[in-house]
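Dear support,

I submitted the protein below through the web form. The confirmation email said the job was done, but the results page showed an empty box. After a refresh the structure appeared. I'm attaching both so you can tell me whether what I see now is the final result or a partial one.
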Amino acid sequence: MGALLRGLGVDLPVVQAGMGGGLAGHQLAAAASAAGGLGTIGFLPPDALRSEIAAARRLTDRPLAVNLLLPFARRGHFEAASEADVVVTFWGSPKRQTSKLWIHQCGTVEEALFRERIRRLHCMVRPER
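What the results page shows now:
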């Protein structure tokens, strides 16, 4: 994942959690990106995602991501997320719906290895608490 992020222009191997419901908005995402990580805007309706991405772009020129929850994401979400540099998906069976860099968040190492082998996509694993 480090080489992938470095290629994107991210200095640190840190991907800020894309917590939905407005918790991970443009201010947090822009701050994480400006600090050298990959800031992530959480799941919101498509128009709100577009607004949050634009607001984050006014605060930083560093790479930004959008997190989409697959059971709830529709075409409009993917279209809005395409305005970010990276689309992060979670919770479900991933299927490419973006031409952007795509990272799928997995619950276990086994799932990540399976997804990378079968779907040839980049995966990250949530640490256990």
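Response: this is the final, complete result; the empty box was a page-load delay. The helical segments are 2-8, 26-34, 46-59, 75-81, 109-119.
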